[in-house]
């Protein structure tokens, strides 16, 4: 059953009626051992933080902490409060359910009781009661749910007394003396012009297409040269022999292979032997494999190759105009300027990777001086979140979850337990430990820091329309703005320890 609050869902998972007060159902006396008062187990989201709370009318709430992440709550109310919920439940069923022998909405209460039984009526009555009181409980206690809770017992209904167990957000307990001694050497990161050059040629390769040699392309490209040059793509058959006129080496046979000359796909020297040749030619040459070649049997070995060229294509590279560059990165610049953009991108990525490495090292040290117990509910929730993220990433790359799990030889349950749950625990530990340090040190992001970060995010977009929309949206109170604020604060926490 769904609570009125969007924060919770109430689902009954088991029910045992009290041994007292349900005389209309004769089955109850058969199922109640003498002295037992536990009633039913139900799940719903709620968290209480403490002690005794007196609410309007007759309700009283008492709470005590059972362990680092569980609070026991006792809710007491008058028999009148339960009877009101019971009457409303009977009236609701009578008005909305068809019972044999009566028109819909016309069945009397005794007919409803006979049809449903006292056990189900009590169950739904308690659900109805909790529905109405849930917001009051949260408001009075300042409670924030982290996982579904459990109704452990209904000790009585005259007066009403319900016992709950609620999983709460655990608090990290940190040894502050040892905390002041922790530091992590900051990992450096750099990106050179050579890195940018390599990235440039990778992009160029991705946008290069080919024309058959000896022709002129429909786009006006001249591919009339019929000899092989560096950068050309050839299709070849090749076979290696132990010597000229000797025996074939099975492992060296290649059929109809598309090879870009100068790409380094084949062993050093092989591609150079094809430069200057034409389609239909058979090239014969000897190559010595490198001494550090990965296959032991070929290290430093001489092999005689017979290679036939079947096809030759000329590369048509993209024209690096300012307009083309703008389509790629949203900035209008020349080739040197674009290479600088690439260098900065590479540097940012390496800095991100370096920081992740440093944060992992820091977390490992912080865990050694921290006591932290995680409840099963919050771990399960975080594991599901990691699972959804991973599914989204797989689908974005064109993979199905089924195929991915099949490749790993795992089912969803074992994959979550063995692979994703440890990551979920790592994330939760990091978040809770940093949260505690943030409280200890009183660290917050300043308005100027937030403003700079917001402007950096906005400037990454090329559309003026999007920029204006973000300027309007990213203001105090907005969810994304608050996320930015918190992220900056946690970054400052980590920076305390990076030397």
Describe the structure.
With 499 residues, this protein is an alpha+beta fold. It has helices spanning 27-31, 79-96, 109-141, 176-179, 193-206, 322-329, 335-368, 376-396, 401-408, 412-441, 447-459, 464-473, 479-495, and strands spanning 11-15, 40-45, 51-54, 60-67, 70-77, 148-157, 160-167, 173-174, 209-212, 215-216, 222-223, 233-241, 248-260, 282-288, 302-316, 370-371. Among the domains are: 11-169, Trigger factor ribosome-binding domain (Alpha-Beta Plaits, 2-Layer Sandwich), CATH 3.30.70.1050; 209-316, Chitinase A, domain 3; 443-499, no CATH class. Strands 1-2-6-7-5-4-3 form a 7-stranded antiparallel beta sheet. Helix 2 crosses helix 3 (109-141), helix 5 packs across helix 7 and helix 8 packs across helix 10. The longest helix is centred in the C-terminal third of the chain and has 34 residues, at 335-368. The radius of gyration is 36 Å and the shape is elongated.
């Amino acid at each position: 059953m769904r609570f009125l609050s969007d924060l919770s869902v109430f689902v009954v998972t088991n029910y045992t009626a009290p041994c007292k007060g349900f005389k209309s159902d004769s089955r109850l006396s058969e199922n109640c051992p003498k002295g037992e008062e536990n009633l039913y187990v139900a799940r719903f989201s709620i968290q209480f933080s403490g002690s005794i709370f007196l609410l309007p009318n007759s309700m009283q709430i008492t709470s005590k902490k059972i362990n680092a992440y569980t609070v026991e709550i006792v809710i007491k109310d008058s028999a009148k409060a339960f009877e009101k919920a019971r009457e409303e439940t009977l009236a609701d069923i009578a008005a909305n359910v068809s019972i044999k022998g009566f028109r819909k909405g016309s069945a009397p209460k005794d007919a409803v009781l006979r049809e449903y039984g006292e056990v189900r009526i009590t169950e739904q009555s308690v659900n109805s009661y909790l529905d109405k009181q849930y917001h009051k409980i949260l408001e009075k206690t300042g409670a924030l749910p982290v996982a579904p809770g459990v109704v452990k017992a209904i000790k009585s209904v005259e007066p009403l007394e319900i016992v709950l167990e609620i999983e709460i957000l655990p608090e990290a307990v940190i040894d502050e003396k040892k905390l002041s001694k922790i530091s992590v050497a900051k990992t450096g990161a750099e990106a050179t012009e050579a890195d940018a050059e390599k990235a440039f040629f990778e992009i160029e390769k991705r946008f290069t297409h080919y024309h058959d040699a000896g022709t002129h392309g429909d786009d006006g490209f001249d591919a009339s040269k019929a000899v092989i040059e560096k950068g050309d793509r050839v299709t070849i058959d090749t076979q290696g022999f132990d010597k000229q006129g000797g025996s074939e080496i099975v492992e060296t046979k290649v059929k109809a292979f598309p090879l870009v000359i100068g790409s380094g796909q084949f062993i050093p020297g092989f591609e150079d032997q094809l430069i200057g040749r034409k389609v239909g030619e058979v090239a014969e040459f000897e190559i010595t494999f490198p001494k550090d070649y990965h296959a032991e049997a070929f290290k430093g070995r001489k092999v005689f190759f017979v290679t036939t060229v079947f096809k030759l294509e000329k590369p048509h590279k993209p024209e690096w105009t300012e307009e083309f560059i703008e389509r790629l990165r949203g900035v209008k610049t020349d080739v040197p300027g674009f290479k600088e953009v690439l260098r900065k991108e590479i540097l940012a990525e390496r800095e991100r990777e370096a920081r992740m490495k440093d944060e992992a090292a820091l977390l490992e040290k912080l865990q050694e001086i921290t006591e932290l117990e995680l409840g099963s509910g919050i771990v399960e929730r975080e594991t599901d979140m990691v699972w959804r993220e991973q599914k989204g990433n797989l689908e974005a790359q064109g993979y199905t979850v089924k195929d991915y799990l099949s490749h790993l030889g795992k089912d969803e349950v074992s994959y979550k337990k063995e692979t994703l749950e440890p990551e979920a625990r790592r994330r939760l530990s990091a978040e809770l430990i940093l949260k505690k340090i943030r409280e200890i040190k009183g660290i917050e992001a300043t308005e100027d820091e937030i403003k700079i970060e917001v402007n950096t995010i906005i400037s990454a977009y090329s559309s003026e329309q999007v920029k204006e929309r973000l300027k309007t949206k990213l203001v105090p109170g907005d969810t994304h703005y608050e996320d930015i604020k918190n992220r900056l604060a946690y970054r400052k926490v980590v920076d305390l320890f990076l030397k």
